[in-house]
Amino acid sequence: MSIQNILETMEYGVAPEDDSQARKWLAKHEGGFGHFIDGAMTKPGDLFEVRDPASDTVLARVTQGSASDVDAAVAAARKAQSGWAKLSGHQRATHLYALARHIQQHSRLLAVLETLDSGKPIRESRDIDIPLVARHFYHHAGWAEILEDELPGHSAQGVCGQIIPWNFPLLMLSWKVAPALVAGNTIVLKPSPFTPLTTLRIAELIKDVVPAGTVNIITGEDTLGPLITGHPDIDKITFTGSTATGKKIMEGAAGDLKRITLELGGNDASIVLPDADVEKVAEQLFWSSFSNAGQVCIAAKRIYIHEDIYDDLSKAIAEYAKTVVVGDGSQQGTGVGPIQNKKQYERVLELIQD
Asked: Is 221 a catalytic residue?
């Protein structure tokens, strides 16, 4: 398209983050991805598909984890844990700083890959998620430096099983991995089967800067979760996801009284008083509900509006929604990307019909 045509139509072009580098990396693993155990990628096993939610095409195939895979990952984490915990806070900080730098160096690839995998707009992956991932590791590296002073006498839990969802794949990883490493723990992490790709790319960065066995990544569908949460040699479970699954995790962890941390679904409300700026609030309410296609645990699900401005605000929200571009997250003008997976899409349709 000529510059003159662009100026006349003012159409959005493709995002400046070209996806060729991400596609090239995926092509290198055309035969499938294995797990990341004890500092190395395993050979691919029984594979399942990971699909691009914008086009419903296959992005990659990853291995379905088994009980023996979990055993191997837990054994590697257990073996590495005492050595990792014996490092000084400064030494652990050095590893976390290095990982943060690696993430920054590969931020463009990670952002594009996150958008391909999750469907979220590239502007969110590029400007919010990936920069925050690096900042989390920098922040917790700083905590490692002062941990002995701020929390004297602290001790590590041991081996942590971590299960993360598909709405913020890499950001969720950083929230769970960084603080666990700071405190001297080692990790067995399971990403969502819908969005494992940036986690597997991070594994390649972890391999270069963190001792083998300190972080282990097992991929798989939902049947893999109970193998982790019920494993007798895992000391702590942390999970972000649905309330129903959280209840099952509590049941699985009860047998040997594992420590657990659960971040579950919410039912958040917004309250609008009669003196609110209607136009400004309309935009804020829209994004509080529909950022990341509404796939956020703290998304506003109920809005209480004072009757004096109810009609005006309802109309303003609807008018603002018409200005938001819905579509492929890799396109620069997209404000709302696709629902990440078919199961969630069908659930949204059920709610609309209800």
From this structure: no
